[in-house]
Every structure is written in structure tokens, then in C-alpha cells.
From TrEMBL:
<dbReference type="Pfam" id="PF02634">
    <property type="entry name" value="FdhD-NarQ"/>
</dbReference>
<comment type="similarity">
    <text>Belongs to the FdhD family.</text>
</comment>
<dbReference type="InterPro" id="IPR003786">
    <property type="entry name" value="FdhD"/>
</dbReference>
<protein>
    <recommendedName>
        <fullName>Sulfur carrier protein FdhD</fullName>
    </recommendedName>
</protein>
<feature type="binding site">
    <location>
        <begin position="273"/>
        <end position="278"/>
    </location>
    <ligand>
        <name>Mo-bis(molybdopterin guanine dinucleotide)</name>
    </ligand>
</feature>
<keyword id="KW-0963">Cytoplasm</keyword>
<dbReference type="GO" id="GO:0016783">
    <property type="term" value="F:sulfurtransferase activity"/>
</dbReference>
<dbReference type="GO" id="GO:0005737">
    <property type="term" value="C:cytoplasm"/>
</dbReference>
<comment type="function">
    <text>Required for formate dehydrogenase (FDH) activity. Acts as a sulfur carrier protein that transfers sulfur from IscS to the molybdenum cofactor prior to its insertion into FDH.</text>
</comment>
<keyword id="KW-0501">Molybdenum cofactor biosynthesis</keyword>
<dbReference type="GO" id="GO:0097163">
    <property type="term" value="F:sulfur carrier activity"/>
</dbReference>
<dbReference type="GO" id="GO:0006777">
    <property type="term" value="P:Mo-molybdopterin cofactor biosynthetic process"/>
</dbReference>
<feature type="active site" description="Cysteine persulfide intermediate">
    <location>
        <position position="131"/>
    </location>
</feature>
<dbReference type="InterPro" id="IPR016193">
    <property type="entry name" value="Cytidine_deaminase-like"/>
</dbReference>
Length: 290
């Protein structure tokens, strides 16, 4: 499966020793850099030096869908509004010790005249795949800058459609099927169609990949949509859903207290333990119909 899995020799022990080959999910760093163009843009036909860039974050991720991950991270962290703020995205020519390209750096060049919407230094960090961006000042700060409020969305979603979406997401988790080692996120359209599924070793990265896809498709804000995650919902995932304007967030496992607080105050419907035929509504259950 290309760069996303690696075949390794292992020993399985269950009272006897069985030597075999198994697939393991690849984990590699991705550095996301941002560069700004001059207000006048780049003249047609010219070849100016590339503008200087700033590293926004470095995250451990499953290689693939890197542009979705980069754009989704910038959107979810309130650094850009959407794809319209971006001129280009490209892999930099970083190389491994053997000289082969690693494709582990993405440089995002902002559109002419666009600058990041907040200083990078406020919440720039080396992010682990498990913990996205930890340390937002408060839920109050998040709510004060939400570009799209889920509370304004009066969509109604049948629980059966969410269960069907979860099943469809599971069927499309090819790397999980091969390794058992990755999370997934999916986006359901207003008609219940599965629009995008992304996998990653980090649940936050999987969500960023889905949101980046939606941003590239011009789909923000995600009114009437449902965000599915194959994990628990913590503060960061609820934050990302709220920033993207998603009215319903459904997770396979539990939710944390801060996730519930974000969802309740932002007007986001949060479902936990979504396993057919059940689901637990932790906030704004009125959107879910039987």
C-alpha cells in the first residue's frame, strides 16, 4: 500500500511461536510551513525568489493526503478562512540520508495580500499525532472567534443515517484493515452520502484531512453535514468541528468534559458511543431523529 504501510517480520505468541509477515502503519513527520506573497502578487511570467516561510507545526502522521492535512490544520486552527486564502501548496524537496525524497514538508503560500489571521506563536507547537493542538486558552476564547456557529443550523439528521455512515466509513478504512493501527474521519452530506473518508495514525489529523478536503471543495461552512470519527471526542476534535461549522459530531467512543462543554456552548450536537443501534447524545439532541 505504498508509503502508508510497511511489511515487517514478527513473532506471534499464543502458547506457541509463529513467525510471519505483517503490515504496520507508517508514521512520519510532516512539517507545515506558510509563506506570504507581496500585496501585488507575482507578476505573470516572472520567476521571483520564493518568499520566506514560517513553520506552523510539525505533526506525526500517516503519509498521504498531505495537502488536505495542511489546509485543514490551518483552517481548524483559525489561521486561514479557507482555500481562497491559499495560492499554492507544494511538497518541498527534503531528502532522506540516502538522497531519496521524503515528501515530509509542505509549504503553503498564501494568496496575494493575505496574512495569517493570528500570530503563529500563540499556539505553535510540535504536535504528536495523538494530541493535535493542546492548550487553547479557554473555551471562551474559542467561542469568541468562531467564524461559523453550529447553533445557527437547524438541520435534522436520522440516527439511521449516522449508523449507515459509520458502516460506510469502516468499509473504506483500507489502512486500518491492513494494520489495525489508524483512525478515520468521514464527512456525511445533507443527504447522508459519504463525501470523504480519511485515515491517519492520529484522530486529529484524520479530521484535519477531511476538513482540508472540504475547504478545497469550497464546502465551508459545513452546514447540514455530519462529521464522523472512529475514536473518542476530546476538546480539539470538538473545536475543529465547531470552527468548520459542522452541526453534528458523532464518535464511536466516549467524549470528554471539555468536548461536551464546547459542543453545548457552540450549539454542536455531540454523539458518543455510536454503535448500531445506539448512540448517546451529549449535547443538543434535538437534531437527531429516530
Amino acid at each position: 500500500m505504498g508509503r502508508v504501510t510497511q511489511r515487517l517480520k514478527v513473532e506471534r505468541r499464543d502458547g506457541r511461536t509463529l513467525r510471519r509477515i505483517e503490515s504496520v502503519a507508517v508514521e512520519e513527520p510532516l512539517e507545515i510551513r506558510v509563506a506570504a506573497l507581496p500585496d501585488g502578487g507575482v507578476p505573470a511570467g516572472s520567476s521571483p525568489l520564493r518568499p520566506p516561510s514560517t513553520t506552523v507545526t510539525t505533526t506525526m502522521r500517516l503519509p498521504g493526503d498531505d495537502f488536505d492535512l495542511a489546509l485543514g490544520h490551518l483552517v481548524a486552527e483559525g489561521l486561514v478562512a479557507g482555500a481562497e486564502d491559499v495560492a499554492t501548496m507544494m511538497h518541498c524537496t527534503d531528502t532522506a540520508p540516502d538522497g531519496s525524497p521524503t515528501f515530509n514538508v509542505v509549504e503553503v503560500t498564501l494568496a496575494a495580500g493575505v496574512s495569517l489571521r493570528r500570530p503563529v506563536t500563540e499556539r505553535t507547537e510540535v504536535a504528536t499525532s495523538a494530541c493535535g493542538v493542546c492548550g487553547s486558552a479557554s473555551v471562551d476564547d474559542l467561542l469568541a472567534v468562531l467564524p461559523h456557529r453550529p447553533s445557527d443550523d437547524d438541520v435534522r439528521v436520522p440516527l439511521a443515517a449516522i449508523h449507515a455512515g459509520m458502516a460506510a466509513m469502516r468499509e473504506r478504512q483500507k489502512v486500518f484493515e491492513a494494520t489495525g493501527g489508524v483512525h478515520a474521519a468521514a464527512l456525511l452530506g445533507p443527504d447522508g452520502t459519504v463525501l470523504a473518508v480519511r485515515e491517519d495514525i492520529g484522530r486529529h489529523n484524520a479530521v484535519d484531512k477531511v476538513l482540508g478536503w472540504a475547504a478545497r471543495e469550497g464546502g465551508l461552512p459545513l452546514r447540514g453535514h455530519v462529521l464522523l470519527v472512529s475514536s473518542r471526542a476530546g476538546f480539539e476534535i470538538a473545536q475543529k468541528a465547531a470552527v468548520a461549522g459542522v452541526p453534528v459530531l458523532a464518535c464511536v467512543s466516549a467524549a470528554t468534559t471539555l468536548a461536551v462543554e464546547v459542543a453545548d456552548r457552540a450549539g454542536l450536537t455531540l454523539l458518543g458511543f455510536v454503535r448500531e443501534p445506539r448512540a448517546t447524545a451529549l449535547s443538543h439532541p434535538e437534531r437527531i431523529t429516530d
